[in-house]
Amino acid sequence: MGAKILIGSQWGDEGKGKIIDVLTQDIDWVVRYQGGNNAGHTVEIGDEQYILHLIPSGILRTGTKCVIGHGMVVDPLALKDEMRDLESRGIELGGRLLISDRAHLVMPYHRMLDAGNESQLADGEKIGTTKRGIGPTYADKVSRTGLRVCDMLDPEFEKMLRRRIVSSNKRLRVMGAESMDAERIVSDILEVSEYLKPFIADTIALLNRAMRAGDKILFEGAQGTMLDIDYGSYPFVTSSSSTAGGAATGTGVPPHRIEAVLGVLKAYTTRVGEGPMPTELDDEMGEMLRSEGGEYGATTGRPRRCGWFDAVVARYSAEVNGIDSWALTKLDVLDNVETIKICTAYEVDGERLETVPANARILEKCVPVYEEMDGWQTSISEVSTFEELPAKTKAYIARLEELTGVEAGLLSVGPRRSSTIIMKDCPFTS
Prior knowledge:
Adenylosuccinate Synthetase, Chain A, domain 3, 20 strands, 2 domains, 12 helices, 30% helix, alpha/beta, Adenylosuccinate Synthetase, subunit A, domain 2, single chain, globular
């Protein structure tokens, strides 16, 4: 295994953290390439649960090095808290965690601006942002006014920070919001910069050197395809490239060095925040999926919207990302469902659609075309091989493979490492 990518193939929250943790047993590097602490990966190891927001999930594997790539936006205060929590639980970070010197910094004023921007949007236009400052930070990056991790090493950093606080306070006053305490922000940020300095590195050079040495590298995506700034249900999306292409631009690793892409899919569909979701279930079945699947955001705690599997989204994701294999998660959540529905296409204004429309207003009007399959109605959480699965579970998996054109390489039947079935031909375990 050389350089490979793992991405979310729906609206995020597909269970990527657990799959990454399973795969990193023999991995040298895990690299996160986009997003910020608006994402959250939950991993259960024994009786311990870890929720990671900025640090790659591979940090839970002793000996694996982890990189926060320059395609990310990094809240230094949140990162320090996350690092301190891991260290308090016996996770060694020194020499294992590296922060790209080119990554942009999320500052307290970004969080204030994020909340202010969202509050000014009318109902129906709200994005459902986490208010973590992600959008304003990426906006500063594109407008070339942002601060980067390397700036924390610059003797002029305090002056640069103060200028941006003054500018942001002007914008906040226009919004009718309170101004920020510049002295407190400067003090907090200068203190945290000293803590983070030993972890800052030129990760582009390190990763390319590692690839030349034959190291195994796994690129970890956050959010999901339908939240990608270009390919998602715009404008109800995140502010970064959460698809496979973002791995190259967000880390400095050439595209031709990527060997394969693993897409993570839930056996049903969820999303957090505002925007269209054609298969959403606002009924007892939707509530059952939420309850049985523990569908609450790892970052915000918000209840996730739940619905049937959307094969239109999965096919679209397979095409956009060039997915070679699926990791199909949370199959066990469907254990007690008598009849399972699969969305195979959409209908809108008398027209049948086989792919995801660009216009979110059209996607909002799409009516799912369903087919039904018998559920297996027995627990599969203790199953350890594909052969042991009920025939109806196998039939469901086979139908999803047929509809999406991609075979499953891994199956997850529970939250723990051990609750994972690795298929014989999985390209991510060799």
